[in-house]
């Protein structure tokens, strides 16, 4: 690794620090957005021009990299061919709410569902299968697991991405998933795991994508609540840890977001937790890191001064690289500091066999039946029964109705129950509520799938109106389980809306399986951590 470092120019070494997006589904296919963002036509040319250390894949309309497993594998091969030093190719495959690659990739429940399942073995197996499928498509770094302790029910961005509000449970599952993702040195089906978002994003009420959230923990509280999962990650020798764009004024009064705080990144993560792996920033285009620093060119420099190594998704890659190179030439940053981070990145690539990467098979097959069966078994153990007044469940209505805030989960569940559907929205309109109530009049039971009902009055009105029909109503929290604080005689929680989650829910509803999950969070004063019924 030292020899590789010595053979790189300053510009190439600085390039290694950056992880960028690219546009398009083929490495050699021109895309006008690459011309707009990078001044070149193809994704491969982005790599050739800037020598980034990594590339990240997305499945949205503006950065559309993901279609089929074979296409992803071909994109990975094309980008690796364009890079002199093998790339860390990453994505956010947390599973559950944050899943970039859908079916045929095996779909597992998200972290909070795994928290409800209480099984480190299940968590490890889910990560192991996910890692093998990612690596088969040429992806070698996963920005997972989420190590945040979701202690604030008002948190708009973490929620079900967290395993639990309990630091001990979160720590156990973080450690298990890191083991599943990374396995052992040079394991062929392993990826670099990333514990996120240090120092802990679970006690915020704002979204760092759109603002600069504040966490009011003091140092003692941080050590007790937020730090344990990251300690577990360090003990598990996680390859990388991602920073959070949050202020912690009682730990760093400077007001800098943690990503740019030397007191937090170097002081807590490097010195107190003794972490010497790769520290990767959260995306540098997010508002949380730009609110105090509208000059995007200074943000990468400040992140390096704070102690970060990988610089994720700067707004303008060329400007960011040039700013860091200029800072070295002016003496604001030293070459030693750059080399320190490059060596950590190269070491990570070495440990996961990335430096010796070979093209992956573009006829890749993922989502095999054994993997799908494992995912369903794991998911079946996560459904949590909160209330079942009058022993309504299990039930076998002749004409059930599924009312859902989105179409896909409602139709998926209806398919398992031979039910009709009425689809509303996250904030149902009066017309949508009236339509659902009218549909309930011809049904003999209703299953209502809620999502954030506890903060959405229109969903609460929908629940009230359905209950007023006199038909049995089974309410199911499909997002965070805080919905169950609302009064209803029957409450279940799935923590997600994936296909396996809806299949597992149907089994519990109809008595094919017993609910086994336990609440991984406290829900107001009504249901404590660990609450869960069975029958």
Structure description:
With 535 residues, the protein is an alpha/beta fold. It has helices at residues 2-6, 10-16, 32-38, 43-50, 69-82, 111-117, 120-136, 167-182, 219-225, 227-235, 262-272, 287-290, 298-306, 317-330, 335-351, 369-380, 407-417, 430-440, 457-467, 499-510, and strands spanning 18-21, 54-56, 88-91, 93-95, 98-99, 141-142, 194-198, 240-243, 278-280, 311-312, 384-388, 400-404, 420-423, 445-450, 473-477, 490-493. The strands form four sheets. It has a six-stranded mixed beta sheet with strand order 11-16-15-14-12-13, with helices on both faces. Strands 6-3-2-1-10 form a five-stranded parallel beta sheet. It has a three-stranded parallel beta sheet with strand order 7-8-9. Helix 4 (43-50) runs parallel beside helix 5 (69-82), helix 7 packs antiparallel against helix 16 (369-380) and helix 13 packs across helix 14. The mean pLDDT is 97.
